[in-house]
Amino acid sequence: MRKALAITHVAFEDLGSLGPALAEAGFSVDTIDACTAAFRGIDPLQADLLVVLGGPVGVYETKQYPFLLDEIALIRARLDARRATLGICLGAQLIAAAAGARVYPGTRGKEIGWLPIQAARDSARFAAFAALLEPGLRLLHWHGDTFDLPAGADHLASTEAYPNQAFALCRHALGLQFHPEVRAAALERWYVGHAGELAQAGIDVPDLRAQSRDYGPALERAAALFWRNCLADLRLID
């Protein structure tokens, strides 16, 4: 059985719809908490797939959160060995940092809410992306930081405010700034867990909840196809 290792930063930002897709593809999944993990004791190459999930801290806040340095080192070891690695939101930013790119606060404000993504110059090279580029489909965005593309990366998706929304490194790493994994019902935990951020950003929670009800089901359907094709593009399944 193939093995996946998932790294969380807050418990409620979990695998979401990716979990069933991994189970269907025959993966067993171990989950660790980045904040308390002993990263130096983890073999970075053991898992067939590493999934690095989201969280509210900045990649550059290593003085406040020293575990980030060890987490980046683990990711870098996988990238150097070309082992399959997937990052979502903070996870994508950590992959970018591990690949030598700059991660920094965005200058266009927080991007929180349901927005479409646009195809970037290299999206056709990653066939799975077609499922997320369907007309009318909206995805959940929830970030204030952004990143430069790593050297040699394929640029896969953009939005008007933040052009670097997704990238791939050859066929072994994929970074997604947005959240294709979310399910509308589970987002109630996000509204509570990120209550301070939402208030500071002036986001109306009832309005965000209504958007989630409107757009979440279509995303779940698209994500099911995306995850299956994504695992194939990462050469983890036939």
Structure description:
This protein has 238 residues and is an alpha/beta fold. The protein has a single domain, classed as 3-Layer(aba) Sandwich (Rossmann fold), CATH 3.40.50. The protein contains 6 helices and 12 strands. It has helices at residues 18-24, 67-81, 90-98, 187-193, 195-201, 205-233, and strands at 2-8, 27-33, 49-52, 85-88, 103-105, 111-115, 118-119, 139-143, 145-147, 154-158, 166-169, 173-176. The strands form 3 sheets. Strands 2-1-3-4-12-11-10-7 form an 8-stranded mixed sheet, sandwiched between helices. Strand 10 (154-158) and strand 11 form a beta hairpin. Helix 2 (67-81) crosses helix 3. It is globular, with a radius of gyration of 16 Å. The two termini are 14 Å apart.
The tally of strands reads 12
Shape: globular
Q: Largest sheet, order of strands side by side?
A: 2-1-3-4-12-11-10-7
> Helix/strand-derived class?
alpha/beta
Helix and strand succession? EHEEHEHEEEEEEEEHHH
Q: Which whole number gives the mean pLDDT?
A: 96
Major sheet details: 8 strands, mixed
Identify the CATH homologous superfamily: Class I glutamine amidotransferase (GATase) domain
CATH top-level class? Alpha Beta
Short synopsis of the structure:
This protein has a single domain, classed as Rossmann fold (3-Layer(aba) Sandwich), CATH 3.40.50.880.
Notable traits:
alpha/beta; eight-stranded mixed beta sheet; two-stranded antiparallel ribbon; globular
Layout of helices and strands:
Blueprint: E1 2-8, H1 18-24, E2 27-33, E3 49-52, H2 67-81, E4 85-88, H3 90-98, E5 103-105, E6 111-115, E7 118-119, E8 139-143, E9 145-147, E10 154-158, E11 166-169, E12 173-176, H4 187-193, H5 195-201, H6 205-233
Parallel strand pairs: 1-2, 1-3, 3-4, 4-12
Antiparallel strand pairs: 5-9, 6-8, 7-10, 10-11, 11-12
